Amino acid sequence: MKIKLTFWKVVFFVIMALGIYSSFIRYFRGLGAVSNMSDQFPWGLWIGFDCLCGVMLAAGGFCMVGAVYLFNVESLHSVVRPAVLTAFLGYLLFIVGLMFDLGRPWYIWHQLIYRNPHSVMFEVGMCVMIYTTVLFFEFLPNVFERLNWKSPIKWINKIYPILIVLGILLSTLHQSSLGSLYLIMPSKLHPFWYTPALPFFFFASAVAVGLAMTIFESTQSARAFGRHLELPVLVTLGGALLVALWVNALLRFEDFFHRGLLKQIVTPSYEAYFLWLELALAFVIPITMLSFKKIRLSPGGLYLASVFAVLGFLT
């Protein structure tokens, strides 16, 4: 069978080749050889993408499970399983990324033995580890149904309420705790982004991104597999996303006002330009779009608004 090369396939192969080469250098010459990090500068920009953004983008699982099983929004039941699968795959990729990020990844099991309950990283590590296990068990019924194994499905269904409660609790803990990582290093962040409310902002943003990612994933999977797009579900998610974005925007504004930064925000500067870009992508554009009923009822409009929201929070 001949493989037809296209432009994007070539790009993919080039990226994979570079990744394999970098992986070889990383494991045989150390993390500093590929990242330029050191004991003085142990965190690079990448940690913000694979750790903070990666976990946030996988928040759709706990958002949908919470909406359906905690708040009894039955209309969203059809997107629970895809959201759980996406979250499970997202957390697995995050763990794989940690195998490259950690200086000595073969010691990752040490947190199970040498526990430090005073460390935010310990809490995040344990929550992510346990939550990934919970997601695995939440997804198992899909596999058992494929294999027509009825007994294991009954066993999973008996503990499902416990899995739901555990999943929501663990997600709430580590989504907010990721924001706490920066509370101990105020000198590393500009006042626009450093605030004692970081844990609350991280959790609130995870809820908004979880809703946006569910819209994004549902649209992409419908296109990829040629399935019918469930527009009523997306409309419900779009309305919830509008509310979540308003909550996030008002929290940010109140924080800026409380810390007396509003005058600095409107003063042109290098940092202010980035803040304007972030606020425009995360709030101004998607909120404006979703405020129009015509866009909220349009699959393309909902998809575009969700893309802007995700890009804004990534920024």
Helix content: over 70%
Mean pLDDT: 87
Q: What is the succession of H and E elements?
A: HHHHHHHHHHHHHH
Radius of gyration: 21 Å
Give the count of helical stretches.
14
Low-confidence region ranges: none
Number of strands: 0
Give the end-to-end Cα distance, rounded to a whole number of Å.
Answer: 42 Å
Counting helices, strands and paired strands, the structural category is mainly alpha
Estimate the strand proportion: under 5%
Which shape, going by the Cα principal axes?
Answer: globular
What about the largest sheet?
none
Oligomer: single chain
What does this structure look like?
Helix 4 crosses helix 9 (198-225) and helix 9 crosses helix 14. The protein contains 14 helices and no strands. The longest helix has 31 residues, at 150-180. The termini are far apart. The protein is globular and about 55 Å long. It is mostly helical. It has helices spanning 7-29, 31-35, 46-57, 60-70, 80-101, 110-113, 120-147, 150-180, 198-225, 231-258, 262-265, 270-290, 293-296, 299-314.
